[in-house]
UniProtKB/TrEMBL annotation:
It comes from Porites lobata. This is ATP-binding protein. Keywords: Coiled coil. Residues 129-156 form a coiled coil. The keyword Coiled coil applies.
């Protein structure tokens, strides 16, 4: 597959001045033509309408000698559509230095200002630093579509995944509510979350074996989950029990979390 040609800054200057000459300058000249025509002939031949009637009026206003000498040009002008009037002087070397480009477009600006035409398009071309092509624009469009798809998936992840709370099964015997301890630890978690915004925070519960650490952690997690769901109903909240008895159980816990 052939590699795409890489254009130099001087070649880009040439392309830019070609555009100014064939499009921007031509548009200005067409506008001046209509202004002058309407000023001279509006009361007699009518306002220039870019139609064949206007073109025929122009053609008939030329002398027989001019009609013969400029037959090819007048054949185009006779249709009246100024958009089809174009004559471009070629620059043979196909490149233009920065200095020559600024000088050339500066002359166009001076001419436009003298004719009271806007130079807005020229200003944009002066600052253009890349040579956009249809292929490049399509590539940028495809990249934007991919980014939009990624954003949709991200929005679905954060907005459409239902909240869940997975805790160890409760023991067969009755357990106390331990409201005071639960409230104290839950408040601590809120303070940690606020102090470590967008970062992970941790809280450890320690105690003798059989003192009810696991049950207390479950009660705190359950309370924390319900408060999160109540405060932010449109957000997804997760509470997950991680089994760290062994590396295999830890991996299985994270796998289950990812599935949820």
């Amino acid at each position: 597959m052939a590699l795409s040609k890489e254009y130099t800054s001087e070649q880009l200057n040439f392309f830019r001045i070609c555009y100014v000459t064939t499009d921007v300058l031509a548009d200005g000249l067409r506008e001046i033509f209509k202004q002058e025509w309407d000023k001279v002939y509006k009361s007699t031949k009518g306002e220039w309408k870019d139609d064949s009637r206007s073109g025929t009026d122009f053609y008939n206003g030329e002398s027989p000698q001019n009609q013969k000498r400029n037959a090819l040009l007048l054949a185009t002008i006779k249709n009246g559509n100024r958009r089809e009037w174009e004559n471009f002087a070629h620059i043979t070397q196909g490149r233009l230095s920065d200095t020559d480009f600024q000088n050339a477009i500066g002359k166009v600006d001076v001419g436009f200002q003298a004719l009271r035409l806007t130079t807005e398009k020229n200003q944009g071309i002066k600052n253009q630093a890349t040579f956009l092509t249809e292929q490049l624009l399509n590539t940028l469009k495809n990249l934007q579509e991919k980014e939009n798809q990624r954003q949709v998936l991200a929005d679905q992840l954060y907005k459409e995944v239902p909240s869940f709370c997975i805790l160890p099964p409760e023991p067969a015997h009755d357990i106390g509510s331990r409201d005071c301890e639960v409230a104290k630890i839950a408040q601590l978690l809120k303070e940690l979350k606020k102090a470590n915004y967008n970062r992970l925070s941790y809280s450890y519960i320690s105690g003798n074996p059989g003192s009810g650490k696991s049950q207390l952690a479950g009660l705190v997690a359950q309370r924390f989950f319900h408060e999160q769901v109540k405060e932010m109903p449109d957000a997804s909240s997760f509470v997950m029990t991680i089994n760290v008895a062994s590396p295999d159980s830890l991996l299985e816990s994270y796998t289950n979390f990812a599935r949820q």
